[in-house]
Amino acid sequence: MDGGGGPGPELVTAAGPSPAPELPPEADPDVEPLPRGGFRCRLCQVAAANRPSLAEHLRGKKHQRLRSLRAERRAQEQRSLFVSGFARGTAAEELAAYFGAFGEVAAVVMDKEKGAYAIVELREAMSRERALAQPQHALAGRSLRVRPREQKDFARPSPGRGAHREPLGAGQLEQALCQAKDVDAQMEQLVGLLELSEGERRLRHLLVALFQEVFSEFFPGCSVLPFGSSVNGFDAHGCDLDLLLDLEPTKSLQSSARRSPGAEESILSDIDLASASPPELLELVAAVLRRCVPGVRRVRAVPTARRPVVKFSHKQSALAGDISVDNRLALHNTRFLRLCGEADERVRPLGYAVRLWAKQQGLAGNPAGGGPLLTNYALTLLVLFFLQTRSPPVLPAVARLRELAGDEDRVVVAGWDCSFPQDAVLLEPSANSESPSSLLAEFFRVFGDFDFSGRVLSLREGRALPLPEAGELFKLGSINLQDPFELSHNVAANVTEKTAWRLGHCCRAAAKYCRSLQYRCKSTKGRGWGLARLFQPGAVEPGAGAASFLISIPVPAPRCPEEPGGGFKEICAGIAFVLHDVLRCGCAPGKPPKQLGAPGAGQSLPEDPVGGKEPPGDATGVEEEPLQAATASKRSQPDGMDGAALPRAKRPRVNSPEQEEEEEEKEEEVVASWSCTVWHRVWTGRRRLRRQLLHGASPEEPEEGGDSLELEQKVSEAIVQHEGAARPPEPLLRFEASARLAGGGRREPRVLLRLTPSPAPGPLFRDFFHFLQAFLPPALRRRLGWGPGAAPQS
Question: Where is the composition biased (Acidic residues) (predicted)?
Fold first, then answer.
């Protein structure tokens, strides 16, 4: 007799076995309890408040219909085959006739877009097993690849359009960050808000599997390997899908096949992969993408890139991506970044924060008004270099990682040593105890005054090297950031001097902000604080409010008021000229903060017509009759002193972020204000139009096209004419602009131009601001004769 605790024998009566007890509704495998009470049906995505409601739902028609549909789909999957390898143009009837030899065929579903594969459904599961038991299949002289149809989780029919998740808007991101308790919590939260969701990762995995399936048909033995942002630990919503098509095994198989008589014809029959040039390989890969991969469009080979690629986009997932055929170093760079992210929990929050900050400041990405900018890879390496140079270091140098690598980790690619441990557990724990928020503040402080062009940032050594130590093959530039493995590659070689200067300038402004209470303390009045304000373009400049953007314009000092271009009124007049005459903005005098001061001398601004009506006699919407800007001063200037050299008032002690911000604004001199409108996208396409105008210049004109501001005026006029001479019904942008004095004494004098958009700033205004931030200072220097100030290459 069984003395255990297992179930006893089933009770049998004259009427037969007793019916099984009915399970409670919450025991249904499709049901899950909710944290705050109640239940949720995962199948139907329906919540029920209590057990009776749940039982009623489970008996309802909707739930029963979905259960029946799910059972039917699973039965179909267990009877179906995934078939590929047949010739293009093969009819469904031909496949049905072939597989009819194993049992009755219920349906054949062909890939409608490319015709690269088919799903063959048989009536009986045993028929499928007989087909799978046969080792080889062939149709019309071509080998077929036959495998079981993949069994997928049942997805409830939904009116949605795929698994693509839209990223958070700027307002949503700011609102989410402001709920955190401190900056460290904000940085941790930022990672969760920006990184890929599990659904997005799964979608990318399925795309890689699809590419592997298709390319294996044409390149037997090949591997499709993801690298870059999708898998390096610093992924973000919408990042590109970078893929490496490894053809080395295929080249070996092709070489063997050519020596074997009777080899079957394929797409590779007329191409020798071992001797094919990179452009030929790229065109071959592009042809497979266009013809055979479902959902792929906009395929374009780029053989002239540093690493030649084939670009593509995928319709259903809304993803863009690249495929390269000779970039194995990228795989090791990807693994290195992932190792660093796993080595210390502070690495990823710092990397995400710096990358988003740089993007919002127009230093990274591809905003409409920018030139060559920092890539996400370069910014991530900059963060890792910074962590290597802390005392004590947060991360080890690559040279130290090479010492820790085991025999199985040693690898050389294209002559470069890429050896490092694959497991972060093998690394020595860091003795550095700085918090993530402190590290972020130190990052800005260190790089605010860093000599980017005079030294080489070496992740291999974990220190800045003198220029000669970088080697003769290393390409020097405005920022010298050495790849951790390919030591001849400067990953920031594309960055211009202007962008390098802006990086230092923005780091200095951010470093100053990080010393303030507004960074360290949560606002009690609902204002942006911590990262939320740091990420706003121009918001961390002194005097910038929560909804305003600041442009800092250095003023050469000392300058005499009598010297041309030296007085503050002339500076305001120069700003007026650039906004109105060069960029074709509509402007009107703004409301002064105090009583009107004396009218400014020099160039004045025109009035902007009310209501958006086109003014007479000017198709571009610019008034002929000029009006002066409203000017005011918070305190009178001493006699004989130029405004740019005004002494600063002694700053009182403050005890809250709000008081600190208010006191900071009091240090400045409001001297002029304007109400501005932007009617045309004058910040887009300027580089191309500038080249066209220079190319079409007559022989007697100077090579630079004369005065650079005259050329910029022509560029703006060409943009206006291209969009249509008539003014649109409403302006694209409206904003208030006010000029302020700052600095003086021992500090560098500067003009702060504050832009306050109305309504709240959107992506269009941010693009305009990034352009103006780079365009205005050099244009003003040229206008006032302060020295070289060539117009920015936007």
Answer: 658-670
CB count in 10 Å sphere of residue 382: 26
**Full DSSP string of 210-265:** HHHHHHHHHSTT-EEEEEGGGTSS---TT--EEEEEE-HHHHHHHHHHHTSTTPPP
CB 353 within 8 A of CB 345: no
DSSP labels for 707-750? SHHHHHHHHHHHHHHHH-SSPPSS-SEEEEEEEEEEEETTEEEE
Are 103 and 97 in contact by the 8 Å Cβ rule? The answer is: no
Q: How far apart are CA 641 and CA 638, in angstroms?
A: 6
Q: How many CB atoms lie within 10 A of CB 753?
A: 27
Is the distance from CB of 670 to CB of 740 less than 8 angstroms? yes
pLDDT digits (tens, 9 = 90+) for 156-213: 544 333 344 455 666 778 888 888 899 999 999 999 999 998 888 989 999 999 999 8
pLDDT of amino acid 56: 87
Kindly report which listed range (191-200, 320-329, 451-460, 637-646) carries the lowest average pLDDT score.
637-646
Give the Cα separation of 441 and 353 in Å (integer). 11
Token pair, residue 3, equals 């003395």
Give 545-588 as a DSSP string.
-TT-EEEEEE--SS--TTSTTTSHHHHHHHHHHIIIIIT--EEE
**Do residues 424 and 343 touch, judged by C-beta distance below 8 A?**
yes
Tokens of 593: 């903060």
pLDDT band at residue 21 under the 50/70/90 scheme:
low
Is this structure's pTM higher than 0.70? Answer: no
How far is residue 482's CA from residue 315's CA, in Å, rounded to a whole number? Answer: 37
Which residue do the tokens 């105090």 mark? Answer: 594
Q: How many CB atoms lie within 10 A of CB 122?
A: 23
Contact criterion met (CB below 8 Å) for 551 and 539: no
pLDDT of amino acid 694: 80
Could you report the per-residue pLDDT of 690-717, keeping only the tens digit for each? 888 887 654 444 444 345 888 899 999 8
Query: Which residues, including other chains, have CB under 8 Å from residue 438's CB and lie 6 or more apart?
Result: none
Q: How many CA atoms lie within 13 A of 189 on its CB side?
A: 19
Question: What was the pLDDT predicted at 607?
Answer: 37
Q: What is the pLDDT of residues 358-406, one digit of tens each?
A: 988 888 875 333 357 899 999 999 999 999 999 999 999 999 999 999 8
Residue with tokens 């305001």: 572
In sequence order, what are the residues at sequence separation of 6 or more whose Cβ sits closer than 8 angstroms to the Cβ of residue 118? 83, 84, 86, 92, 95, 108, 109, 110, 111
C-beta pairs of 464-470 under 8 Å, 24+ apart in sequence: 464/389
CB 569 within 8 Å of CB 600 = yes
Strands (E), 611-746: 626-627, 669-678, 733-744
pLDDT in tens, 266-296: 555 567 777 888 888 999 999 999 888 888 9
Contact status, residue 300 vs residue 286, Cβ threshold 8 Å: yes
What's 364's DSSP letter? B
Report yes or no: 705 and 718 within 8 Å, Cβ to Cβ.
no
pLDDT of amino acid 13: 44
User: Does residue 71 surpass a pLDDT of 90?
Assistant: no
Whether 563 has a pLDDT exceeding 80, the answer reads no
Give the Cβ contact number of residue 514 at 10 Å: 22
Beta bridge partners of 482: 458, 490
